[in-house]
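pasting Multidrug transporter for the record, 110 residues
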Amino acid sequence: MNGAIYLGIAIVGEVIATSFLRSAAGFTQLVPSVIVVVGYAVTFYFFSLALQTIPVGIGYAIWSGAGILLISIIAYFLHGQTLDLPALIGIGLILSGVLVINLFSQSSPH
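structre below
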């Protein structure tokens, strides 16, 4: 597999783990806590594999940017958490940065 696929798996793992953090209730709920721990273990394992072929700064920018966007969407639908206009603008700028890296940077994992 190439670095971009590993990075995608890391992003999915992080989004799943982070989505269950609230339900884990400070790690007092067994099943959500296990999902969080396993999710982050998968995340960091595959992120480390991705960084073998992707520069760390680029990989981290894509990983964190995609995570912020996806978690914000999930929080809206699962927890009813809304974002105000400045938050939406900020997330839009993060998304724009990830797109610029992927579409135009010679350092990105094309």
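Residues 56-79 form the longest helix (24 residues).
The CA atoms of residues 11 and 64 lie 8 Å apart.
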